[in-house]
Amino acid sequence: MVLSPISNTAVTVGADGYVRVWDYGNKVQFYSQNFATRSEATAIEWIPYSKKNGGRMLAVGFSDGLLRFVILNQSSIELVKVFKIHRRKITHIKSSPDGVTLAVIDESGDIFLCSLNSSKIQDIAPYCLYETGFKVNDVCWDRDSTKILLGCKDGNLAEIKVLRPQQCDNS
Predict the structure, then answer these.
(1) Do 73 and 58 contact (CB within 8 A), yes or no?
(2) 140, 150 contact by CB (below 8 A)
(3) Is residue 116's pLDDT more than 70?
(4) Alpha-carbon gap, residue 26 to 17, rounded angstroms
């Protein structure tokens, strides 16, 4: 579940593949969307507010490794972009504090980074894969958006230095 940074809206994802939008102040569901998939919706993150996205953009991860970017409209969920970002179930999605990078983690601990562009919502691109091998319990960014901290299922803490797109060699 994620909460809107600008309204009394909560968004949940479920094993049935649905994304549901709620008015938690009035305890009613606004609307829902199933993306005609047999996979479970497993992770969700609110993309940081920008003038272009109006605080209405989310990233939703699925058990088949798909990552969907959506915009919440007045009465519907609009699909913006889709990537097959992992081979396994996506378990965590986390935006960097500066709103420039999105970390997407699968059940094997692999981290895929996506660049976000606050002025062009369609300008989203995966750019770097870290194969950590960690079983991840929780994830957070440091304050300056240069490192990801992973809380691991074995009780350890791992720190990953994050490369920017121009520093990543994808050859």
Answers:
(1) no
(2) no
(3) yes
(4) 24
Residue 92, Cβ neighbours under 10 Å: how many?
22
Q: Find the angle CA(126)-CA(73)-CA(139) to the nearest 5 degrees.
A: 40
What does the alpha-carbon distance between residue 17 and residue 39 come to, in Å, rounded to a whole number?
Answer: 6
The identity of residue 99, as a single letter, is G
84 neighbors 65 (Cβ within 8 angstroms): yes
Say how far apart CA 138 and CA 111 lie, in whole Å.
12
What is the gyration radius of the CA atoms in the chain, in angstroms? 16
Buried b (16+ CB within 10 A) or exposed e, 65-74: bbbbbbbbee
Averaged pLDDT, 126-139:
94
- Contact criterion met (CB below 8 Å) for 23 and 3: no
Q: Which two tokens stand for residue 146?
A: 């240069």
Report the alpha-carbon distance of residue 19 to residue 1 in Å, rounded.
Answer: 10
Q: What is the pLDDT of residue 76?
A: 94
What pTM did the predictor assign? 0.93
The owner of tokens 């986390």 is: 94
Average pLDDT score over the chain = 93
